[in-house]
Write a structure and sequence with these properties.
The complex is a heterodimer. By secondary structure, chain A is mostly helical. Chain A has one domain. Chain A contains eight helices and no strands. The longest helix of chain A is centred in the N-terminal third of the chain and has 29 residues. Chain A is globular. The relative contact order of chain A is 0.16. By secondary structure, chain B is an all-alpha fold. Chain B is 72% helix and 0% strand. The relative contact order of chain B is 0.05. Classes of the chains: A mainly alpha, B mainly alpha. At the A-B interface, helix 1 and helix 2 of A face helix 4 of B.
């Protein structure tokens, strides 16, 4: 039982990291769509940034657990190089790529004021890919893919993200209004 | 109102207002930098709690399935000698078992 502790750390860290990344995407979409009027843009932006950072931390916990688990036998190559894993190479690679994209989104967000806004925005769109790849990684490679609660969680969260994305695309005027509000909040904070 | 009567000079009044604003802007600067400071703490606690809860529930599910698997142990052990006589393969050298089925090989090989 004790030798499986790191395995539980890896699995639990992965699920929490996915949930936090999904929440960060939803918070970001709320910032641009203003679907819910009540929360102040500055509050939403602050929490959106924090959620992204926390997701990176829990991805670290996920990797840490995998590295220390002796059964799965993941080394640096399996953890950081796509398709290096002999266990489900494609499904694991989805997670590796999602991790790199998440780190890219986080780093560019931290350096947002020092880079052209267009570059930052382009990289920030990768957060959609982070969500999709992370969800696929969890559903295809994860041990808990057969867990009904996890499956329903993925379905509901994906539905929310899809709906908010459609609102974002189909209501450009509203979105640009939200963006300008977010920009104001960003410059204010 | 009282300010206006006490300081009719507009320049003096603007000066006082600027001083007051400068004095008040020092204190809540931290709050303005992180408008969701309390929510951040709440969220971090919630994330940690769910991390612990998910891990604990996994361990609990595993222990329940282990106990149910362990019940027909005599039958499993009767068929086991062929497997146990062979040298134990290292997990890395063998084709890694999918973690989904991990509860079975784990309890069989390193459950004790």
């Amino acid at each position: 039982m004790r030798d499986q502790t790191w395995w539980y750390v890896a699995r639990s860290g992965g699920i929490v990291a996915w949930a936090l990344a999904a929440l960060a995407v939803i918070w970001g979409l709320q910032l641009s769509t203003r679907l819910v009027r009540k929360p102040a843009p500055a509050w939403v932006l602050d929490l959106h940034r924090f959620l992204g950072g926390l997701a990176v931390v829990f991805v670290g916990v996920h990797l840490f657990g995998l590295a220390l688990d002796s059964f799965i036998g993941f080394g640096p190559a399996e953890l950081f190089v796509p398709f290096a894993s002999s266990y489900k190479p494609t499904e694991v690679a989805l997670g590796v790529v999602a991790m790199y994209l998440l780190v890219a989104v986080e780093v560019t967000s931290l350096l947002m004021k020092r880079m052209p806004r267009r570059v930052w925005h382009g990289v920030h769109y990768a957060s959609y890919a982070v969500f999709v790849l992370g969800t696929m990684h969890g559903l295809l490679a994860g041990t808990d893919r057969s867990n009904v609660v996890f499956q329903w969680g993925c379905l509901i969260v994906s539905g929310i993200v899809l709906y908010m994305t459609l609102v974002r695309i189909l209501a450009p005027k509203r979105a640009s209004r939200g963006r300008s509000a977010a920009g104001r909040a960003g410059t204010a904070s | 109102m009282t300010d206006r009567t006490q300081h009719p000079d507009p320049e003096e009044r603007i000066k006082r207002l600027q001083e007051r604003r400068a004095a008040s802007s020092d204190a809540p600067s931290a709050r303005r930098r992180h408008p969701a400071a309390k929510s951040r703490v709440l969220l971090a606690s919630l994330a940690l709690a769910s991390f612990g809860f998910v891990g604990a529930s996994m361990a609990a599910t595993q222990s329940v399935s282990t106990s149910t698997v362990a019940a027909p142990a005599p039958v499993v052990q009767a068929a086991a000698p062929v497997v146990s006589s062979a040298p134990a393969p290292s997990p890395k050298a063998a084709t890694p078992a999918p973690p989904a089925n991990r509860s079975v090989p784990v309890t069989a090989t390193r459950g004790s």
